[in-house]
Amino acid sequence: MLTQLHRLTPLILRRTADLAQHHSSSTICAQSLQYCEYGEPGDVLQLVEVSVGEPKANEVLVQMLAAPINPSDINTIQGKYPIKLPLPAIAGNEGVAKVLKVGDNVKNFKQGQRVVIVENALGTWRTHGNLAEHQLMCVPDKIDLATAATLVVNPPTAYRMLKDFVPLAQSDCIIQNGANSAVGQLVHQLCKAWGLKSIGVVRDRANFDELKTYLRLLGATEVLTEEELAHKDVDKKLCKLASPRLALNCVGGKNASDIAKLLAPKGVMVTYGGMSRKPVMVSTPALIFKNISFCGFWITRWMKEHKAKPDREKMFADLLELLDQGKLKGVKHELVPLKDYKAAVTAALDIKGLVGKKYILDMQC
């Protein structure tokens, strides 16, 4: 009996080794940025290792390549965003990845393809993960890494606000504050591509002339400071332009009220942010005598309501075509290795300079 056991021991060890090797080959040790409580990103984020197994039948195993740090990411970690995930949670809402393996029932993706994540709150600040097929969209390899990583939030926001609220025709005019923000820069580029006039409003600053030149190169027809916007003679400065039919507001407060005063009768103001943390004040004459409309826009809600709909497909097709034609370009950015995440999230909270720089986590470093 003892002799038989000795004979079996090598076989048992070989089988155990085979099983261990099979297990290790089907499991990836991934890194992810997690938070177990809400707070300032630099304080609560932790880089941890997690095991990622084989994709299920309808899943795709991806290797994340890059993921931006957006204001919505910061607010989510702080607990100030409408979406609150069960904790602990992996941070990040947007990013570009490479397909490593697909589940048995996956039809639209194959190994090696580049994809972007098109659903919110899936945790993109990680190196690997399994995602459902419908949560991904293929993008061409020729699009640079940073542009692909930032394709799903800001470009659709700019696109939809120009398309969905006012039927704009050639030479119609729009006005926006936060013109040097990521969305603001994209709005000016889209207006230029579509033959629209655009007025950009920015905060007063020492390097205003340099910023004005930059925004006009992007496509802005006119650029004003907040002080110029509030001046009683602002109409004279804009006399060569038709009254704006659409206003895009990401600031709020007095600045939003000053923009509303310039709207044409039956104009529309769309609010998509509130950087000043002050409410949008609506004047009675604007409502009664000019019949101005005020509404809000949130790209997360729009994407959720338009899953697998033709207008979403057309939007991304249009944006990709404009990128290919060179009529649309991404904002200034800096790629930061994942291990340096603390410096990146701190810098993202304190953006300075001519225009807002987008910090993008590089998962390949």
From TrEMBL:
<keyword id="KW-0444">Lipid biosynthesis</keyword>
<feature type="domain" description="Enoyl reductase (ER)">
    <location>
        <begin position="42"/>
        <end position="355"/>
    </location>
</feature>
<keyword id="KW-0809">Transit peptide</keyword>
<dbReference type="GO" id="GO:0006633">
    <property type="term" value="P:fatty acid biosynthetic process"/>
</dbReference>
<keyword id="KW-0521">NADP</keyword>
<keyword id="KW-0276">Fatty acid metabolism</keyword>
<dbReference type="GO" id="GO:0005739">
    <property type="term" value="C:mitochondrion"/>
</dbReference>
<keyword id="KW-0443">Lipid metabolism</keyword>
<dbReference type="Pfam" id="PF00107">
    <property type="entry name" value="ADH_zinc_N"/>
</dbReference>
<keyword id="KW-0496">Mitochondrion</keyword>
<keyword id="KW-0275">Fatty acid biosynthesis</keyword>
<comment type="similarity">
    <text>Belongs to the zinc-containing alcohol dehydrogenase family. Quinone oxidoreductase subfamily.</text>
</comment>
<dbReference type="InterPro" id="IPR051034">
    <property type="entry name" value="Mito_Enoyl-ACP_Reductase"/>
</dbReference>
<keyword id="KW-0560">Oxidoreductase</keyword>
<dbReference type="InterPro" id="IPR020843">
    <property type="entry name" value="ER"/>
</dbReference>
<dbReference type="GO" id="GO:0141148">
    <property type="term" value="F:enoyl-[acyl-carrier-protein] reductase (NADPH) activity"/>
</dbReference>
<protein>
    <recommendedName>
        <fullName>Enoyl-[acyl-carrier-protein] reductase, mitochondrial</fullName>
        <ecNumber>1.3.1.104</ecNumber>
    </recommendedName>
</protein>
<dbReference type="InterPro" id="IPR036291">
    <property type="entry name" value="NAD(P)-bd_dom_sf"/>
</dbReference>
<dbReference type="InterPro" id="IPR013154">
    <property type="entry name" value="ADH-like_N"/>
</dbReference>
<dbReference type="Pfam" id="PF08240">
    <property type="entry name" value="ADH_N"/>
</dbReference>
<dbReference type="InterPro" id="IPR011032">
    <property type="entry name" value="GroES-like_sf"/>
</dbReference>
<dbReference type="InterPro" id="IPR013149">
    <property type="entry name" value="ADH-like_C"/>
</dbReference>
